Amino acid sequence: MSVDRSLQLLLYWRAEQAEMEAPPPPRASELLRRARPWWLRMPEEFDRGVARLFQTRLNLGYALEGGPARQRGATVPALLPGPDGERLGYVRVTYLSIRDDRLRLRFTLDDQTARLDATLALTFVADPSGAPLLEAAAHEAGDHEYRAECPLPPELAAEWSRLRVTDAMPFRLIVRSDVDHLPWHP
């Protein structure tokens, strides 16, 4: 038997083994459930988060302060995950760009001692209506800074394209550690 034939048989055998060990595929209803945003799957949890998020008063003074370039930028009220549950806080937007209907955002955490996961799920909530706008994954970029990039609906892209990093942001954030619910999670 040739080496090529032996290798081919080995690969077929391994593929059969993997097929037998694999869990059954999810049902169509489960795939549809996973594709829905978390605020539609867990509306009570979303409503509680929004109510808590709007307890935070917007502090625009931070955006007007001088200081190093990394400290400039708009502050955005955020509901942040913590060891004892959610906590209210702020993130500081350090970079904001909208091109080709894509949002590119960098932000730092208000509490430099806070340690969050390397990947976070962001839910953008309209200010002041509290309506969910979109979801994005944010990845740690070092020094308590996170980066996010996601597609924007055309109407949001047109509206937000005029924003500057020091402007009051038209959103607040719900930050979650469970990125598994994001459909594009790696």
Helices and strands in order, then pairings?
Elements: H1 3-21, H2 28-35, H3 38-41, H4 43-53, H5 61-64, E1 75-82, E2 85-99, E3 102-109, E4 119-126, E5 132-142, E6 145-151, H6 154-160, E7 171-176
Parallel strand pairs: 1-7
Antiparallel strand pairs: 1-2, 2-3, 3-6, 4-5, 4-7, 5-6
Protein model, in words:
- The two termini are 41 Å apart.
- The chain has helices spanning 3-21, 28-35, 38-41, 43-53, 61-64, 154-160; strands at 75-82, 85-99, 102-109, 119-126, 132-142, 145-151, 171-176.
- It is an alpha+beta fold.
- The protein has 2 domains: 3-34; 42-180, no CATH class.
- It has 6 helices and 7 strands.
| Number of helical elements | 6
Strand order of the largest sheet: 1-2-3-6-5-4-7
Count of distinct structural domains: 2
Uncertain runs: 60-70
